[in-house]
Every structure is written in C-alpha cells, then in structure tokens.
C-alpha cells in the first residue's frame, strides 16, 4: 500500500472506522521539542491510540498499523502491536514478507524493520532460509555494505541453515572467479586480493586478522613480507604495506637483505645513519601518511619496548 | 611565518598551536600537492597544515548554532514526525547541545524537568515491578499510553535508550537525582539483560546489540549504581564483539563499526574495566587489543579529514574513542576541523554531508567534536557519558 498523500481518505471519512473515536495526544502543559505534526499524521496516530487502548486485534487494525509505519517506520510500539495482531489473526506470514520487502526499498537501514523480518522468518522456520538469503542479496544490489542485511544474513545462516553455499556467494561478491574449494587457502586469497587492489584497506586487515591468535605464524610466513615488498616496489608510499612491515618487525621478524635494501631505498638518508629498519619505516610513514604523523612518531619512540615484547612473546611460544 | 615551496614557489602559511617557533628550525618535505609535513629538529610535535585556501575564513558559528537549537527546542518542523518515536532523543540532542554551546539559559529548566519526568513509566505496585517488564522512560507520547478504565491493561513501552536520554537531560539541567527514587529503573533493567550479556532495549522484544549495553552502562553510571546489570556478562559480550581488525562490531562476528566501537570502549571505561589514557600505559595487560584498535581507529580519518565509521564509509564517533584511549593528539585536528566546517550549515547546525540540510543528530556530533577540539566558548564534553558535565 502506497500512502500517496493526495489519494488518502481521512480516517474520519472511512465508513469502516465510523464507530471509533480517535484519542488525541496529551503532551502535557509545556512540551519540549514539540513536533509540528501534519493533519494526516495526527489523525492516524489518534486512531492507533484508540485501537491500541482497546487492544483490538482486527484486520482494520492491521491495516492501520501499516499506515502508521509508513509515517514513522521506527515506531517500535506499532510494529510490536502489528505482531500481536498477526498472531491473533493467524495471518499468512508470506504476505508479511512481501510487506516488509516493499518497505525495505526506502527503509533498508531501519532496525525495527529488520527485527520484524527476523521475527517473521523465525516463525516460518527453515523453509524461509532461501528466501531470506535472496532478500539480503536484493539489498546488496543497491547497498553492498548494508550492515543490517549482513547481520540478517549471518543470523539466517546460523539459525535457519545454509552455510554450504555461503563461501561461494561471498566469493562471488568479492571477485568474479569462484575458487575451487579444494584449492582454498585463505592467505593466498588475501594476498591475491591485496595485489589486485593494494589501496583497499580491507584486504590488508583481513590478511593481518588471519594471524590474530598466532603470532609465530605471522612472523614466520614469508608470504606476508613478500606481499609488502611486492607492493612497495610499485607503490613506494603504500601506507598499509609499510604498516604491516612495521608490525612484522615489532613482533620479531628478521628481514632479509633484499627487504632491507628496498626499505633503505625509500629513505636514502637512512643509509648513512645505519638506522634500524623499523625506525626507517616509521620515518617514511611520517612523510607518506602526514595525517597520522604524530602517531607514527609515537610508534617510533615505542619501538624499543614493542620489539622487546614481540621477541619475548615469540620465545614464550 | 611564511615558507615557499622549493618546487613550485607557492607561498605556504603554517598553522601551529602552543609552540614558540623561534626555538627550532623547520625542515620541510614535500609529499604531494596538498599535504605537507614539517619536521622540527628538536620539537616533538611537527607542524602540519594544508595548502588549501580559505581555512582562515571559516569559523565555528556559535551564535547561529544556538539559534538553530532554540528553534528545535520550541518547535520541530513536520518532516520530523518521521522520528516521532525518538522525540526524547531529539530533546537530548537539543538540550545537551545548548549546554555544550554554553547557552543552557535558553531552556526553561522547570518545563524540561516536568516534561521529561512525565515520560517515566511507573509500576503501580511491588507486584507490577516484578512482572518482568522494564520501568524506565518512554521515548515519546506515541509509546506512552494511559489505560482507560475498561479493564484492559496496556504494557508499558519504556525503552532503554530513552531512559539514557531522559537521565542525561535531567543531569544536564542540574536536576537533583536524590529527589526521585530511580530504583525501579535499576531493579527492572536486569530483565533486559540477555544470557549472552547483551541488552534488549524493550521487554516486548527487539534487537540486542552493543548500543544497549552502552545505554545500560551510562544509566548505571549516572545513577551511580551498578545493581541493574551484570558487569561481567556485559564485559564478555563486549569482548566477543571485537573484530580481527581491532575495531568492534555491533554484534559478535560483525564488521567493525565506528558507533559500535565507541559503545564498546565507552562502556568498558564506565564499568572501570579499562583504564583511561590506555595508549600511554602498558597495553599488553588490557582486556582488549589496544594497538590493533588504535591503528584501526586512526585509519578511519579519511583524506578529507572526517572520520569514517568503517573502511570506505562515514561517522564521527571514532574521534570519541580516540579521546578515551588517550590518543587524540594522533588525530589531524586541523584537517578534521576543516572537514567539519564544510558540513556547517548556513541555517546553523551541521549536516551529514557538505551542502545538505542540518539535522539534530549530526549537529550534536558537530558540537561535541568542536568541544573536543577545544573551540572557544564551548563547554567541555564528557565523552563516556555523552554529555557536558560542567555544572551550572
């Protein structure tokens, strides 16, 4: 139902509502931040108050909640009442999915809408899984990063099932080729993503995140320093590559000569000073990432204790 | 105070704060057409600036912002009926905003107190208090119902976020909390905490995530009473939301998000589970991965100076996180300020993007950001509580 303002018939003129007296809002004597409600809004809410107070769980009440939601899609009281009515009427929840989908086009970031959708899907059970995943895909077409849609998708998979196809789908979104599962290797995948688009922060963070609980693997895996070196040879000012190298060094990584030479080349004057490689990297970062210059200077100063701790942690393992 | 670029001879004007420039020599290194880093020989803080024009023309227009907030305080235009349900939140942005701008004299304190208190949900008796419902504050008249004498009982729809806003407003206008018994809030707030430690905002059912853990923490902090929440469970939930990249998602397993990160860090700080100024301390003993978090937060400052809420998106709560961690000197404040001013509206207030109309939410965050940037004439802002705690 599209509430086109010109077509809307006031509730007071609708015969099916003639027996109801709307209940006006009582805002008290000196309201703060009062809102200049339109006639249509005030009237709709007046009738909502009437049916809510009478606890009328009827078809006309259901329709009224839809109208109220169109005015204020965040109104959780009305959404909750709608759920009570749907239960009382034993309504066909597939229709409800349609209702939500229709609203979602203009309200895709509305928490109440997504909560309602989850409530409906949960009632429908596992048979709804496919449709829910399709629904989120539709949202991603216009908004690939929609936070609610990703949470919903995660919830569907955890509660209603469907993980088998999920990895393939994520892959489809990230690039066009679909990897063969037997060749799956997350580090290689992340490295490939980095090399394809080194300016994308997310791939770097993902790579780093793979080693979150395993510092020795992080330091030992040559692929990490290699990808940094590869990127730096073509993009000498890549902050993510430099930062990751700094991270490696802070955790006890021992660079080979090729890496040392490459870094020295970024800051020629460091050769004469015989600087520690991590110190040199910090100096380069101060220049190529001037927005965060104070942070890089602080990292440089903290290096001594960082490296000590990194080496200590390695020994513990 | 003028330098010339040795490549293109453009005159560069240098901004700095608090340093005696005669004490050291500057060595300039050019890295791009707009940004320049100047390293000092012996000073700790280098000078930073942008070669863009017009920075000195733009000022924070406090008077205009006050007029904008006063207008909202007296009447919000009809498009705001789409946000009717969160009216109390709009009131919080307005009243707390006026306090930050040091213009709280524009509000009728008594009227505010009475209106806010009129939105409180009260259990009729001890039995009702223990019926599993939450007795806090309603967000607006749209969720507050007075039952008719027809025997039908209406559930109260008081909400955790509205309760936070209500208490924040009352604190802001200097209401004496000892005048009212808020124990029913704390006693019934426990009903909203979930087995995993998260909070649901309303007992009739809603999404549960970090936002409401934060609300519960602030409420407890403002009432100076932690009996309404299980801190240990809340802590575990928060920690389970820290992502592999150091930021926090709204729920476990979700992508790091600026707002969620703020809720997580502020909550931990309010609960006393992390110390302040973490960045200067021995970070390895903290319950959260501070270095990773710090790096993630700092990377959120984009080239235009504004803070993104996630890689490749926008928000401003991350600035608050950095302040809590004790890392605000790592922020490029000049560029941030410049970005914020591009969002300053000619009508007063701030908009989400340059050139758009202002709204209460972005205006409020603009004011808090300028307060943290120590703009003259603004009151200081308590980042964890989300209000100015300057007493009247």
UniProtKB/TrEMBL annotation, chain A:
Cofactor(s) required for function per UniProt: Mg(2+)
- EC class, as a word, reads transferase
Question: What are the UniProt keywords, alphabetically?
Answer: Magnesium, Prenyltransferase, Repeat, Transferase
Which Gene3D superfamilies does its entry note? Protein prenylyltransferase (1.25.40.120)
Which Pfam families does this entry report, sorted A to Z? PPTA
- EC number(s)? 2.5.1.58, 2.5.1.59
- Region (Disordered) residue ranges read 1-31
Example GO molecular function: protein farnesyltransferase activity
Q: Which GO terms describe its cellular component?
A: CAAX-protein geranylgeranyltransferase complex; protein farnesyltransferase complex
Tell me the superkingdom of the source: Eukaryota
Q: Record keywords: Lipid biosynthesis included?
A: no
* Keyword Magnesium attached: yes
The similarity comment for this entry is: Belongs to the protein prenyltransferase subunit alpha family.
Report the protein name in the record: Protein farnesyltransferase/geranylgeranyltransferase type-1 subunit alpha
Automatic annotation (TrEMBL), chain B:
The family assignment reads:
Belongs to the protein prenyltransferase subunit beta family.
| Name of this chain's protein | Geranylgeranyl transferase type-1 subunit beta
- CDD domains per the UniProt record, alphabetical: GGTase-I (cd02895)
Q: Which InterPro entries match?
A: GGTase_I_beta, PGGT1B-like, Prenyltrans, Terpenoid_cyclase/PrenylTrfase
Q: Which cofactor does it need?
A: Mg(2+); Zn(2+)
Recorded hits in Gene3D superfamilies, A to Z, give: 1.50.10.20
Q: Does the keyword Zinc apply?
A: yes
Q: Which organism is it from?
A: Cynara cardunculus var. scolymus
This protein's GO CC annotations: CAAX-protein geranylgeranyltransferase complex
Which stretches make up the Prenyltransferase alpha-alpha toroid domain?
60-385
| Documented EC number(s) | 2.5.1.59
Any GO MF annotation of the entry: CAAX-protein geranylgeranyltransferase activity
